[in-house]
Amino acid sequence: MSARASRIDRNAALRAFVLDHIERHSLSAISALITLNFPPDLWVSRSSLSDWWQKNRHLHQKPATDSDT
């Protein structure tokens, strides 16, 4: 039995939206923003965002630059 991909993984626009907001907003705020910008079939809860981010953050973190040190 294979696990179904998350709603965020299945929709490129939703994933891009989450990644664009993840560093600046709380998960609750992102969930609320999603309800304002996407149809109900793409809405995700704060806990779903948290689960997705915990599994995927290592894939999306920006590398450190010289100015970060």
State the gist of this model.
The chain has 69 residues and is mainly α. The chain has helices at 7-10, 12-21, 27-37, 46-60.
Name the features.
Transposase; mainly alpha; 69 residues
As an assembly, this protein is single chain
SSE order: HHHH
What is the approximate shape? globular
Percentage of residues in strands: under 5%
Judged by helices, strands and strand pairing, the structural class is: mainly alpha
Number of helices: 4
Biggest sheet record? none
Counted up, domains total 1
- Helix content class: 55-70%
Distance between the termini: 45 Å
Kindly report the average pLDDT value.
Answer: 88
- Output the radius of gyration: 13 Å
What is the number of E strands? 0
Describe the structure.
The chain is mainly α and 69 residues long. The protein has one domain (7-61). It is built from 4 helices and no strands. The longest helix has 15 residues, at 46-60. This is Transposase.
